[in-house]
Amino acid sequence: MATAYWCIVIAAVLPYLWVFVAKSGGPRYDNRDPRGWISKQENPRVKRADAAHLNSFEAFAPFAAGVLMAQFSGLDPQRINVIAVVFVVARLLHGVLYLTNKPPLRSLAWLVGYVCILALMVQSAIAIAD
């Protein structure tokens, strides 16, 4: 189960990785108005990194909830670990594909991550219903 918990930690850090890429990719970053600075950027890579940052935050809460639901419902810890690792790999690829402007592959990586979340949650709900 420790692996899945480490995956939660990694997923919690991912948004900050992508925002670091965004902020280091543009000229004269202004920490007094970070959102205003991002909105003024013309570099598409900066905008894509910021989008990956926001999307990582959106994915984090459902993933963390899914892992905890799976643990509390008594799912096999090895199954939870495998699904959690697949999620993290998919989310890392999602960010890289966002940065490299590969929309179809990025969407596929997003879908894999989302399916992992659903798998954790649905299997948990079924386990609790039994």
Brief description of this entry?
The protein is mainly α.
Euclidean distance between termini CA atoms: 22 Å
CATH architectural label: Up-down Bundle
The radius of gyration is: 17 Å
Shape: elongated
Given the helix and strand composition, which structural class is it? mainly alpha
Largest sheet: none
Q: What is the residue-averaged pLDDT?
A: 94
User: Could you name the CATH topology?
Assistant: Four Helix Bundle (Hemerythrin (Met), subunit A)
Going by CATH, the homologous superfamily would be Membrane associated eicosanoid/glutathione metabolism-like domain
Count of alpha/pi helices? 5
The amount of beta strand, in percent, is: under 5%
Low-pLDDT segments:
none
Looking at this protein, list some descriptive labels.
130 residues; Four Helix Bundle (Hemerythrin (Met), subunit A)
Describe this protein's structure.
The protein has one domain (2-129): Membrane associated eicosanoid/glutathione metabolism-like domain (Four Helix Bundle (Hemerythrin (Met), subunit A), Up-down Bundle), CATH 1.20.120.550. It has five helices and no strands. It has helices at 2-24, 34-40, 44-72, 77-99, 103-129. Helix 1 (2-24) packs parallel to helix 4 (77-99). The radius of gyration is 17 Å and the shape is elongated. It starts with a helix and ends with a helix.
